[in-house]
UniProtKB/TrEMBL annotation:
GO molecular function: ATP binding; catalytic activity, acting on a protein; magnesium ion binding; phenylalanine-tRNA ligase activity; transferase activity; tRNA binding
Main location: cytoplasm
Gene name for this UniProt entry: pheS
Binding site for Mg(2+): E258
Subunit and partners: Tetramer of two alpha and two beta subunits.
Protein's UniProt name: Phenylalanine--tRNA ligase alpha subunit
Keywords tagged on the record: Aminoacyl-tRNA synthetase, ATP-binding, Cytoplasm, Ligase, Magnesium, Metal-binding, Nucleotide-binding, Protein biosynthesis
SUPFAM superfamilies, sorted: Class II aaRS and biotin synthetases (SSF55681), tRNA-binding arm (SSF46589)
Biological process per Gene Ontology, one example term: phenylalanyl-tRNA aminoacylation
Cofactor(s) the protein needs: Mg(2+)
Location of the protein in the cell: Cytoplasm
Free-text comment on the cofactor: Binds 2 magnesium ions per tetramer.
Catalytic activity: tRNA(Phe) + L-phenylalanine + ATP = L-phenylalanyl-tRNA(Phe) + AMP + diphosphate + H(+)
């Protein structure tokens, strides 16, 4: 059979098979069968060396024409098959729009996140800025810059996770205060809070955790007095726990404040009469505070004869437990959805 007749016959066969296929897989098989590297058209072209110089351009042009005709037919058939499959799929997957929709479960902020953001908003409204710092802290900023030199007995109150002799997981967020004051070196006043995670070697139980959250505040300026601290804490307690809550300040000790105080709030369960929640005292301890120690100011570059300030620190977990009646601190970290979903609107 001559080459020309062979190409014409292949074109006819291929076009007939293209018309008969009903799936994309079969169509691809036809493409490979006739147009592939091992197909008959390629085989014909390989034998063109045996043709005369006059026949080669004629056969070459015909071969290209046959190849293009088959390719166009395959593309057209492919479009038809895809459209048919789409219509069939739409018929099979018809959606009943009258069926009720599936409810979408919407999450919410964690209770601790809500408490922290509420406290942040409260203090931002009083002119405080929110600052952050590293959780892996140096011994200097975690202790020494806060009037806790090496060997100070008060360090025993904060069993620490040391990484090296000079690096540890911070035991409170007070280092952020020390870093901020050290950055300013007495050039400007400081009014800030610093929320964040802290770490202490402790046995986990209903009221203790080796990792918990703290929010500490600092205000340093000229003529800052203890009465200013009491006013800020009183506004904090009333806005967070209710306008009917009262506060009291009791003398205490912290190495980085002098004088130091503990703040109690009146018990909301008994309104000060005494109950099991407040251990019959009528008051519940909520945070520690005091005037910034002159030595802390001096180490940060502030002249204690000119500047004074107050600092306070609180635990959002404890505040959440008191405000919402949570009886175990571990509920905040065990990710029990039954507990967490109660406070999506908190």
């Amino acid at each position: 059979m001559k080459v020309k007749e062979r190409l014409q016959q292949l074109e006819k066969e291929a076009l007939e098979k293209v018309k008969q296929v009903t799936s994309l897989k079969d169509l691809q098989d036809v493409r490979v069968s006739y147009l592939g590297k091992k197909g008959p058209i390629t085989e014909v072209l390989r034998g063109m060396g045996k043709l005369s110089k006059e026949e080669r351009p004629v056969i070459g042009e015909l071969a290209n024409k046959v190849r293009q005709t088959i390719t166009d037919a395959i593309d057209e058939r492919k479009a038809v098959i895809e459209e048919e499959e789409m219509e069939r799929q739409m018929e099979e997957e018809t959606i009943d729009v009258t069926l009720p929709g599936r409810p979408v479960r919407v999450g919410g902020p964690h209770l601790l996140t809500s408490i922290v953001e509420e406290i942040e908003d409260l203090f931002i409204g009083m002119g405080f800025e929110v600052r952050e710092g590293p959780e892996v802290e140096t011994d200097y900023y975690n202790f020494e810059a806060l009037n806790l030199p090496k060997g100070h007995p008060a360090r025993d109150m904060q069993d620490s996770f040391y990484i090296t002799e000079e690096l540890l997981m911070r035991t409170h967020t007070s280092p952020v205060q020390a870093r901020t004051m050290n950055q300013y070196q007495g050039s400007k006043s400081v009014k800030m809070i610093c929320p964040g995670k802290v770490y202490r070697r402790d046995t986990d139980d209903a009221t203790h955790s080796h990792q918990f959250t703290q929010i500490e505040g600092l205000y340093v300026d000229k003529n800052v007095r203890l009465s200013d601290l009491k006013g800020v804490l009183n506004r904090f307690a009333k806005q967070l726990f209710g306008e009917d809550r009262e506060i009291r300040l009791r003398p205490s000790f912290f190495p980085f404040t002098e004088p130091s105080v503990e703040m109690d709030i009146s018990c909301k369960m008994c309104h000060g009469d005494g109950c099991s929640v407040c251990k019959q005292s009528g008051w519940i301890e909520i945070l520690g505070a005091g005037l910034v120690h002159p030595r802390v100011l001096k180490m940060a570059g502030y002249d204690p004869e000119v500047y004074s300030g107050f600092a306070f620190g609180m635990g959002p977990e404890r505040i959440a437990m008191l405000k919402y009646g949570v009886d175990d601190i571990r509920h905040f970290y065990t990710n029990d959805i039954r507990f967490l979903k109660q406070y999506h609107q908190a």
